[in-house]
Write a structure and sequence with these properties.
The chain contains 1 helix and 8 strands. The longest helix is centred in the first third of the chain and has 11 residues.
């Protein structure tokens, strides 16, 4: 299999014609108890809690976010932001206003595709 790398070119310079790389917004892991999960991650890692309720939590790490979800609410997944998220399927609007759809990759792994324009930018 030949490896194709559009970022960077042969000289190590970014390819100006290549589309920008997509961003991973968060990784979601399933926990049986959100509160216990928040406590465990907070005690064992340097992270901050962005949001928490009885059904899910979002933790901030230096390079990404970690969602703690209940098994009957969401699957474990990787969330990727795209401006054209609707091309992957019908978008659902979540209670926080973010729009997304769930798909599976070629190996059956669940992915959440988030519409990038519906995600609030963090405050300065």
């Amino acid at each position: 299999m030949t490896k194709k790398n559009t970022h960077p070119d042969e000289d190590g310079q970014p390819d100006p014609l290549a589309p920008p790389l997509d961003s991973i917004h968060h990784i979601a892991v399933v926990v049986p108890d959100v509160e216990k999960g928040v406590i465990w991650y907070s005690q064992n890692f340097h992270c901050t809690v962005e949001y928490v309720d009885d059904t899910w939590a979002l933790l901030n790490f230096a390079n990404t976010k970690l969602a703690l979800v209940l098994p009957h609410q969401h699957p474990a997944h990787v969330a990727i932001t795209r401006s054209d998220a609707q091309k992957f399927g019908n978008l659902t609007t979540h209670r926080d206003g973010i729009q997304s759809t769930y798909i599976q990759d070629v190996a059956g792994n669940p992915l959440e595709i988030l519409k990038s324009e519906t995600i609030e930018a963090p405050p300065d």
